[in-house]
Every structure is written in C-alpha cells, then in structure tokens.
Design goal:
2 copies of one chain form a homodimer. By secondary structure, chain A is α/β, with parallel strands linked by helices. Chain A has 2 domains: 4-11 and 227-345, Lyase, Ornithine Decarboxylase, Chain A, domain 1 (Beta Barrel), CATH 2.40.37.20; 33-223, TIM Barrel. Chain A is built from 10 helices and 17 strands. The first copy, chain A, is elongated, with a radius of gyration of 22 Å.
C-alpha cells in the first residue's frame, strides 16, 4: 500500500479528510446565515472537488477564467458564475456558446464588456446573467460608485439577451455591505430587481453575514487552507489540507538547509500585505524560515531551531498560497491521514484563457 | 494567416528571430574565450529550443531536475549535466537508469548523495560523472571551503562507478574564480584531474572568462531575456524574445488599468534584490507600473503615463522572470516578428521531480 512517505519529492498532497471538514464547515456557516455558497474552483482546479462542494450544498460554482468554466461544464456543472471581466469578441462568442449548454452568469464593470457579450449572445440566440462588478475598497476591478453601478445595471437590463443578475464584489471588506446596499437601493429605485449580491474572499468569509447586504458567498481557498489563512486565523493547522512533501537535499552549513521545492513547486507568492520573508511553513520545524526560493530550491534558515534535519530527511511544507501552488502541478496525491494514497490530475491547471 | 494579434489572451509568445540572435551571441562569446557552453533547459523546457542551442555549438545541456533530463534524453540529447543534488534511493536509481542511455553528470555537495548514487550505479552496472558543487558566495547549496571540495572530490574518485567530473558553482560571482582555482589546486595536489570547472548564471555570464578559472558556462535565461536581465543591462529590449500578449479588461479609474495576466500567467517573481514593485514591463506604456498581481489580474498604475490604454486594447508584457513564466504555460506561440505564428507545447513544464 502506497503511503505519503513512498512518494517521490517534491509532491503536492491533499488530505481529503481535512477537505471534507473544510467544506462542511463553510457550508454550515452559509446555511446558518441563509447565504448561497458558490465555491471558487480556481483554488483546486479539479471537477472532483467541485463535485464534493456541490453535493454538500453549494448553489453552483465560481470560475475565474472562461477556460475553467468550459472544463467544468464539460464535467457536468450547470450553474456557473465567471467573475472575471470577459472582454473582446472571441471571449464573448465562447461565453455565448457556453450559455447554450449551462446556466451562466458573468461579472464585469464596463459597458464595453456588456455590449460585446450581449451582441454575441444575440448572434447565438443564447442568454446569460450579468453581475455588476463593484470596487468596494480593494482597488482592482469594479465600478467606483453606487451611482455608476446603477447606471451599468440599467444598461445591462436594456441590452438584449442579457439579464441583470445583481451585484458582486471581491473581496468583501469592511464597508462593502453598506456600499452594495446603497447601490441596490439606487437600482431598485429604477424599478429593477437585484436578485443576488455576491461577495468573495476566504479570510473574512465568516463576517460576511454581518452587514445583511449579501445573499451569496464566493470562497476558494477555504477548501485547502494555506499559510496565509493560517496567519489570518482563518484555518487551523490540522485543516491545512494542501501540503508539499519535500526532501532535504543539502545541509551546507549548521544553520542552512536546502529543500527540493522552490518557486516552481510552491510559487513565489507571499502572504498579501505581510512580507515576512517566509515562503511556506515547514511543519516539522515550525521555527525554521523558508527565507528564499530559487526555481527548484528552498533555502531554509534553521538558526532558530533546536532540532535540525539531515540530508535525506523528508519534510512537509504548507504553501503560502494554495491556489498558486496547485496551478503548478499536473499531479497531486490524495490521501486520508497519510494513507489510501491515490494520484489525481489537475484538469483545469493552466487554463488562463 | 494567424498573427500575434489574432491570439486569444493572455498568451505567451516567443520571437524565434530574437532567440536565434541570443543563442548566436552567447555561443560566439564562449567560442571566443574557449569556454564550453552548456545551456540550461529549465528556462525554455522545450527540446526544440535545446536542439537550436546544440546545433549552434553547445557542448551538451544542463537540466535542473531528473524529470527534465529524462525527457531530454527521450528527445535525443545524449550529454546531460543535472545541477540539482539528487538525494534518495529513488532518484539515484532513476539516474542510474538514465546513465545507461546517455552520458550523464550530476552536481552535488554531500557524501550522502555521492554514496547513494554510486550504489545505484553499481547495482545497475552504469557510470556517471560527479561534479563537486561549491558555494562560492551565493549561499545556497555547495561545499563551504576549497578543502571541503577536495575532500569530497577524493571520496567521489574512490566510489565505484562514479567518476570525478570536476567542480561547479552557481552563480559565478565576484571571487568565484579564485575560490574554484584554489579548490582545483588542492584536488590536483592529490593527484586527481579536474576536467571541468563549470559556472552558471546569465546576468554576469560575459565576465566569466576573466578569472581564467572556468572551462564551461551554464546559462538559461539568455535564450529569452526578461525584465530582470533588461534591468541588469544583460539583454536589449529587442532581444527580449518572451512576451505575454494581454488584454486591458477594466479601466476602473483614470490611473488604473487591469490586464488579464496575473500571477498564474507571469509568476509573482520579482527581480532578485530589486523589489521595485513591478511585476513586468508593459512594452507599449513603459512608464506604467505593474503594481500588483492577483492570480488572473495585473493591476497597472498609469499615473506616470501620458497616453493610456482603453478597455479592449491588447498590450504586451515582458515578464520579470522568463523561467518561471514559461513553467506556467502548456502552450506558447512561436513567431518571427509577429508573423508565421505556430503554437507549440512546453514538454518539460512542471517536471519538478
């Protein structure tokens, strides 16, 4: 029987027991607060895990790119929100084709996007919902004011084959609820219905009910956990399902160890706003610091460690950012507490278009 | 005829005219200084480009991971140096198998690695060369002193089925030549031959002849160039062969643009030691700053730009780090000056084991 310790390194591993707990916990939160849960598949990129989320009670799924959505539709998912602005006729035509197969909604913030998508839907004779993407404080995409949200909503409602799906924001931050409630009032004053107010982001997911403004939660990373969520107190160590098994391949000095897992295994992602110089958590040596990464090496500072590993030792790293790490790997090793190891693929890996 | 502007975005593109120039220039440098050139395939991960390098005069190729080496051997490359320390019996056995098919050398810094590899070679009845990996200032892997290098060289020479291949370091920094010359003298004093002294790293590649200590140059990124090398003055803008075509998908404010290329397209890699907050060079708007990346978004600060792009515009990004960017993509678009576009794969992508 294959166990985790039999795997060649570096290998990305997923503890399905922890995944089950993470899915159940978030679903329970949403059920308690009458929020629809629409998990983001960009984190795991695997239809098999999206299936677990839907079976547990998720309303549908969220995709970041059209290619992910097409793959998920191929795998039987029939209620898909794409939260990335689809711009250009090529993307709009693919969306219109997808809308002929499954129920699909898109989020965007420009009349250019809305008009292009509407035209493509009309040409194909299909229909889709459009959520107005609102910048409620993160300063990425999104219309800038509730007035702008209402104006775009009105345009969407007028455009053929496009249905106003509601409002969305990412991430839901302090003040997002008030912003979106104001936008909702302005839209309703125009006689339009706001069927959905959707907010994203795992770190503060369980505060999203407080404003009363949201009807839907979009979260991705909760399914795995990572060092960022651990630092935010949003996941417990035991529930960090995604880990890399790695080998100590060099011990050049008393204070330094080199692992065979670098930026091509873990990504170079640092926890947002918290550049503490650590590229992952070394589980067996929590005082160690993954001080720098090369493409295939992690350089580990052991100076704070009493016990230190030897060349050949196999260790475990919790990546900083689960979504980025998964996207580097064509294979992961599923297991339950280190046993029942089964190798699986990552079908939506690399689908950036 | 497909042109670059017909590609869906984001798409990684490779200008083969620039690749040809970069390969020819580095080969000419090595020929002039009687250095063997052993290009690192970790950058491009493509047998087709490694073939161009060997045809131009490269001695053989360098691989970072065993999986890359196996794939390159499958594609007809018969002289391979693996510069990553192979530790563990599983890796040693695969190396011993590979050594039965092609001429192979490995670099490592521990007696554990040397003994394990020797045992596996003996069991398979194959042989390989072993380069002593020396830490000449970068503080990653490598023995710490010329005396340690000589001691490991002596062990290697004694171990069955292992042949002393010489010395290696990465990167070659100021002082590396003197360090390695001292190690070479100590090894030769023991009556052993040092057939090769190999140094790596594109940024200062063309200074490597100055010390007179090196016989071989290992470089990877020179083939493509990237924003890091551009900042170092090691490549010209026109010779940056690797670029991402991306679309402006949102213009939420006068100073902000959002591109459809984030860390899953470009990586989060920053130029080493020069965290200038830029995640790539926006070619058409060189005053713009790629201020932050999400997985699928680049947030661009346009405040220094006189001209500014509109939603739907297609733009070009030179990634910070070519090696990391290539490793995210299953497909690249080869072209010559924007024409003769041909889609190719990245066969060694993701081979971290």
């Amino acid at each position: 029987m294959v166990t985790i310790s039999d795997l060649p390194t570096p290998f990305l591993t997923v503890d399905l027991d922890a995944v089950d707990r993470n899915i159940a916990r978030m679903q329970r939160y949403c059920d308690e607060h009458e929020l629809a849960l629409r998990p983001h598949v960009k984190t795991h990129k695997m239809p098999a895990l999206a299936r677990l989320q839907v079976v547990a009670g998720a309303r549908g799924i969220t995709c970041q790119k059209l290619g992910e959505a097409e793959l998920m539709a191929d795998n039987g998912f029939d209620d898909i929100l794409i939260t990335f602005p689809l711009v250009g006729t090529g993307k709009a035509e693919r969306l219109a084709d997808l809308a002929g197969r499954v129920r699909v909604a898109v989020g965007a913030d420009s009349d250019v996007a809305a008009r292009t998508i509407s035209a493509a839907l009309q040409a194909r004779g299909t229909a889709a919902a459009f959520l107005v993407d609102c910048d409620t404080g993160f300063r990425r995409t999104g219309v800038q004011t509730p007035d702008d949200a209402a104006a775009l909503a009105e345009l969407v409602e007028r455009l053929p084959h496009l249905e106003l799906g509601g409002l969305m924001t990412h991430p839901a931050v302090r003040g997002s609820g008030e912003w979106l409630a104001a936008a909702r009032r302005l839209i309703e004053q125009r006689g339009l219905e706001v069927a959905c107010v959707s907010g994203g982001g795992t770190p503060h997911a369980r505060e999203i009910h407080e404003s009363g403004a949201f009807t839907e939660l979009r979260v991705g990373t909760y399914v795995f956990g990572d060092r960022h969520l651990l630092g935010e107190g949003a996941v417990a160590l035991d529930d960090c399902a995604l880990r890399v098994v790695a080998t100590v391949v060099s011990r050049p000095t008393a204070d330094r160890a080199i692992l065979d897992a670098g930026s091509k295994t873990l990504t170079s992602d640092l926890p947002p706003g918290r550049d503490d110089g650590g590229y992952g958590l070394l589980v067996e040596y929590p005082e160690a610091v993954l001080a720098s990464l090369s493409e295939e090496h992690a350089t580990v500072d052991l100076s704070a460690c009493e016990e230190r590993p030897a060349v050949g030792d196999v260790v475990t790293v919790i990546p900083n950012h689960a979504c980025g790490a998964v996207n580097l790997h064509d294979q992961v090793a599923f297991h339950r507490g280190g046993r029942d190891v089964e190798i699986g693929g990552v079908p939506a890996r690399g689908l950036v278009r």
